[in-house]
Design a protein that fits this description.
This protein is of the alpha/beta class. Helices cover about 40% and strands about 15% of the residues. The chain contains 13 helices and eight strands. An eight-stranded mixed beta sheet has the order 1-2-4-3-5-6-7-8, sandwiched between helices. Helix 2 crosses helix 3 and helix 3 packs across helix 10. It is globular. About 45% of the residues are buried.
Length: about 290
């Protein structure tokens, strides 16, 4: 596959409320699709290396988009503009816009919560399976308390400040550093671009996107009927704990599995890219019945 050229599409789609959703796709649109959603205060940019991996492009059409409130997508300023149904409609707009047929949903960190919106508001065949990557499984005060580590919770005041520019900038860089095992070893272009993308989430919107109302009933129902779930967790994740999520997966999903990377960071798809791609491809091939 070395040297193969793939078509890349960058576009925006209009969601049900008129909010524009930035999305990009790469590869052969006739292949089964994987849809990637980034984490808090970041953008689809974090998936850049994954979206160009030939081991995935050989078998799958790869799509990523910016969540509302983030990056190049629209930024509603009210809690009503961040309803669960609208997040599901954003996914549907991207899926329909690219002509996807029951893609595999892949969420990282806060992006994982969108699976709860999809399974509650869209038809059962909207997705073929779920991949949670270092996830916050859904938004609920008790779940957040169990999953979020004190280190990341301590950064929220700085991330939400609107009157202290120095604190805001320093906190954004500290937030990005918690994503990696060894931040100084990460190339500056990666650290700068990820930190820069965090500026597009307005501080006054951060509390909305992390506390918007969600109902996991659809997620639990989908798990009970056999929707496949794969959970990636890292043993050195500085932001979120994996064990409470494993319990949710075992309790509510008939078909669930966990890939635990002992030295894995929060951005384990970056720090442990080869292992992540290998396990993701294996799971996706099973979901789509690919036997190559």
């Amino acid at each position: 596959m070395t040297g193969t050229l793939y078509n890349v599409t960058q576009t925006v789609f209009s969601s049900s409320d008129g909010t524009l959703v930035y999305a990009e796709a790469i590869g052969d649109k006739h292949l089964p699709a994987l849809v990637f959603v980034h984490g808090l205060a970041l953008t689809a940019l974090v998936w850049a290396q994954i979206l160009r991996d030939p081991r995935l492009l050989q078998f799958f059409y790869l799509v990523a988009y910016d969540m509302r409130g983030h990056g190049r997508s629209g930024k509603p300023a009210t809690i009503d503009g961040h309803s669960s149904k609208l997040y599901a409609d954003d996914f549907a707009a991207v899926s329909n816009g690219f002509g996807l047929n029951s893609p595999l949903f892949i969420g990282w960190s806060l992006g994982s919560t969108i699976a709860a919106d999809i399974t509650l508001h869209l038809p059962p065949d909207a997705i073929s399976g779920i991949v949670w990557t270092a996830p916050m499984p859904y938004i609920d005060p008790d779940v957040i308390a169990a999953v979020a580590r004190p280190e990341v919770q301590s950064l929220f005041p700085g991330l939400m400040t609107t009157d202290n520019v120095t604190l805001s900038v320093e906190t954004k860089h500290a937030f990005v550093d918690t994503l990696f095992n060894d931040p100084p070893s990460v190339p500056w272009d990666i650290r700068w671009s990820w930190a820069g993308s965090s500026t597009f989430l307005k501080p006054e919107h951060l509390s909305i996107v992390t506390s918007r109302p969600q109902d996991p009933a659809g997620l639990f129902k989908a798990g009970a009927r056999g929707l496949p779930l794969l959970v990636f967790s890292g043993g050195q994740d500085k932001q979120l704990r994996g064990e409470p999520v494993w319990e949710i997966a075992r309790k509510y999903f008939k078909d669930s599995s966990v890939v635990f990377i002992p030295k894995g960071s929060h951005a384990l798809f970056y720090d442990f890219k080869d292992e992540y791609v290998q396990e993701l491809a294996k799971f996706a091939k099973r979901v789509f019945g690919i036997r190559k």
